[in-house]
């Protein structure tokens, strides 16, 4: 099943043009190749290019499948990128998991990794060049948190759906 075993080759499956939305065919192919994070957790390799794949999945689900407003889609994509970036940089895991859920008035996105180290929301200053990820999550999401698991943690955020 896609997303369950093979996690090796992300780069050859995700569109190469940064900032340009993929066509529906290419965006849906990301879900076909790796799995649909609304059905089950999708496992991705712990490599920097996996963030691009997670962003594309998030954009496809929120925009094409759920029909959410553009600003909410953009914010969700940014926050997924931040959580995935933290998992890639700070956990040392071989893979991490992405899961997405929608309820009537909100969405929830989860990134699971095998590290039990807790993320830390740091104060942000004007000239800081890093450390803004959780600040963005805290600012743009309705709420966020971390659930400790027997083997790792799930870092999640929720966003309220407005204007749909």
From TrEMBL:
Keyword set includes Kinase: yes
SUPFAM superfamilies with a match to the protein in the record: ATPase domain of HSP90 chaperone/DNA topoisomerase II/histidine kinase
InterPro entries for this protein: Anti-sigma-factor_SerPK, HATPase_C_sf, HATPase_dom
Keywords: Kinase, Serine/threonine-protein kinase, Transferase
Coiled coil: none
Superkingdom assignment: Bacteria
Residue span of region Disordered: 1-28
Domain Histidine kinase/HSP90-like ATPase per the UniProt entry, residue ranges: 44-156
Gene3D superfamilies, per database record: Histidine kinase-like ATPase, C-terminal domain
Protein name: Histidine kinase/HSP90-like ATPase domain-containing protein
